[in-house]
Write a structure and sequence with these properties.
Blueprint (H helix, E strand, L loop, with lengths): L6 H8 L3 H8 L7 H13 L6 H5 L7 E6 L5 H14 L5 E6 L4 H13 L4 E4 L9 H8 L4 E4 L9 E5 L1 H14 L5 E5 L5 H16 L9 E3 L7 H12 L7 E4 L2 H13 L9 E5 L13 E4 L2 H16 L10 E4 L2 E3 L9
Parallel strand pairs: 1-2, 1-3, 3-4, 4-5, 5-11, 6-7, 6-8, 8-9, 9-10
Antiparallel strand pairs: 10-12
Helix pairs in contact: 1-2, 5-12, 8-9, 10-11
Amino acid sequence: MFESYTIKDIAKALGLSTSTVSRALNGSYEIGAETKKLVLEYAEKVNYRPNPIALSLKEQKSHSIGVVVCEVANDYFSQAINGIESIAYNRGYHVIITQTHESFDRETANVQHLLSRHVDGLLVSLSAETADTSQYKYLHEKGFPIVFFDRVAPDINTHKIIANNFKGSFDATELLIKEGFTKIAHLTSSSNLVISRERFDGFKAALDKYSLHFKPGYLKYCNHGGMIQDEVEFAVKELLNMDERPDAVFIGSDRLTISCMHILKKMGMKVPEDIAIVGFTNSDATELFDPPLTVVRQPAFQIGQMATEMLIKTIESKWPVEEFTTEQVETELIPRSSSQKPL
């Protein structure tokens, strides 16, 4: 993943000092034309590219912050970005936003690009495909400031901001159970994500509390987090075609919740008469749905603000930061018609 040829390698091959090679590559007037030509030709021959990570780790400040999210159009992330910007700009930092579209490869490329822009730190919410966090481990071990929010890397000890996913899911599932639903399915994002596991655990705990049997067939993963409509439609149809069809579904992510409502409507299914719905979403339009949608809402704006405060504090610390915290914020369950048992 990282460029194998370094300035040291070029210097060794040409019998020059690393400082001479560095100056030649940067076009310094201190280096003669012949030496410059020698260095540049050799660099081209070995396909040398400056390592953006090495560049970003130098003692230089750009007063900019890189943000990695799956999709700006996602209501949760658009609100979180508003929170990020509200703090960053007041503190004199610019914000550079990148989208992964739930792709690990695009996430990797985005991080490399942000580092090449010399950002002072990163605010990261992992893509649904991301299982390998080695690029973040490398940066973190070098002391580069990173704060994860929402979709965090469990194996990296740095600052993190998360919602209380377990309780949000427990409350949503318990609401359906108290309404009289007993065959409750769970539609969720990639199992790579910690939030998917925490939300499943909350869902399962509510079933256990009321002695409802969990059917493995009622659990459906959408590994692209709702970015591929056909994937969501396939999962929904699988649930509806079961011999013992679920009478309710708890949905574990923002985009999946909205997509599921559209798919059910397209299929001619009535909510909640044919199937009840509760989902995680920060959309401001859910009250206008037909029927109005019961949702678990996260304080996305606040999460964005808290993550940015943590990151800037880390960036501006005069000493290496060695103690890290994970802050948890509460979710809010907003009951509406989509989860009500028909009379």
